[in-house]
Design goal:
With 223 residues, this protein is an alpha+beta fold. It is 38% helix and 11% strand. α6 runs antiparallel to α7.
Amino acid sequence: RLEGATKQFGAAILVSEEFFSLLSTHVQRLLRVVDRVTLKGSAKPMCLYTYDIPHTQSQPAARRSSGSPFPLSKPDGLARTASDGSANNNNSSTINNSSTTATANNNTGGGHARVEGGHAGRRQSHEDGHVRKGLDDFFFREAPPATSATFRDSWNQAMIGYVGGASGGDADWEAAMQHVDMCLMIDPTDGPALALQRFMLGHRTSEGHAPEGWPGYRALDEK
């Protein structure tokens, strides 16, 4: 079903939310969410993702990507947040919050204490952060998406306004359309942007708002 939907989105590949969740966070950061939908025979909404395949193996420096394409592992991640996806729990580090321990010095009858854990935990967290950033940089260097950081930032904002959170209540289709237009100014042939523009134009109110009762997703029933 997703293979057939690639034509609708003008994308070479579509990835389901379930498959996306199986990828490492470093690979997830290479993907772009393109819609939130329900498939025929299912009432459960899910996000769809694509990888913007570079047109050539070797890209000019100005086209090589940096930053995050806002990976979203679950619908709750579509809340109105910073465009870098900083609220996405899947990309946050796991910090060892082991409590600070104090060991009494037997020679002084417990008069002095040795504090452990606090500095070591912060140092380990700092080192882990460098490792994660290094891996992210590696993946973006070896397999950068074709889209630029500016494009992805506009697209992130478009998706936030379009979906409007897990229940759709925060949808802002006027703002979403403005960001889609910005994406199409950068790349007039972008398939997902054209698909989103087409859908919103066909379903928005006369004032340009999301339709009444918009749930934050649509049925993927187009051919």
